[in-house]
Amino acid sequence: MAQLGLIPEDIAPDDLLETFNVSRESLEKLRRYVTELLHWQKSINLISPATVNQVWHRHICDGLQLCDHLSGEETLIVDIGSGAGIPGIPLAVWLAEKSMAAQVVMIESNSKKAAFLKHVSRVCSLNTRIINTRVELIGKSELSQRPDVCVARALAPLSRLLELTAHLPVHPQRMLFLKGQDVDVELTEATKCWNVSFCKHPSRTQENGCILEIHEAELVSERNTASD
Question: Domain-by-domain residue ranges, the chain?
Fold first, then answer.
């Protein structure tokens, strides 16, 4: 895949039509999402206040850039620790253009944030499912289909993310994690306990960030650790 350039910080909403090849219908859903996000932000801390004036670049584009690494044939994406819905909501908007059957499951333990996710999914007519609990408590009855992709942003260091995905009752086929400039430090720490097959894709919103794509992650057994 050809390397894509950085997205300018002053990107206008209409620029998303070409930048991410989204339809006008999808753009209108994203506008509605941003409107609801900023409205709820007044009473719930959904995003950092410092990023409110850059919501399209820092949040919408940050989530949509994962689409560059999806085929459009995915039927189930799981967003763990979804918070304000990044990247889950933008991905659900994008996927709706590809398949009406594709679903994004968002796992969020904070009840107020989960309520926001349910509300915005309804007003934007998105095929999502919100699970209001901790990832560690997800059962087979709540997630029985194997996810095509598990995604996360600003949730935890890599080692913790691998622990959380290992708790899912059905292991995802691959993972896409939005990471910052400390990704190599996180990889060094994580590989002390995990055998990880991964590759890094340059972020389109952060000069020193990346999208960490993980194909396999296997916990190193205590026996193997002791023999090293």
Answer: 13-227
CATH superfamily to which 13-227 belongs: Vaccinia Virus protein VP39 (3.40.50.150)
Annotate 38-58 with DSSP letters as a single string. HHHHTTS--S-GGGGGGHIII
The two structure tokens encoding residue 79: 């967003």
Q: Is the pLDDT of residue 3 over 90?
A: no
Q: Which two tokens stand for residue 167?
A: 């708790």
Among 208, 211, 146, 145, which residue's Cα sits nearest to residue 176?
Answer: 211
Count of beta carbons in the 10 Å neighbourhood of residue 208: 11
Tens-place pLDDT, residues 177-227: 999 999 999 999 999 999 999 999 999 999 999 999 999 999 996 445 444
From 85, 123, 119, select the one nearest 104 (Cα to Cα). Answer: 85
- 165, 180, 66, 170: CA torsion to nearest 10: 0
| Residue 91 pLDDT greater than 60, yes or no | yes
Contact 16, 30 (CB under 8 A): yes
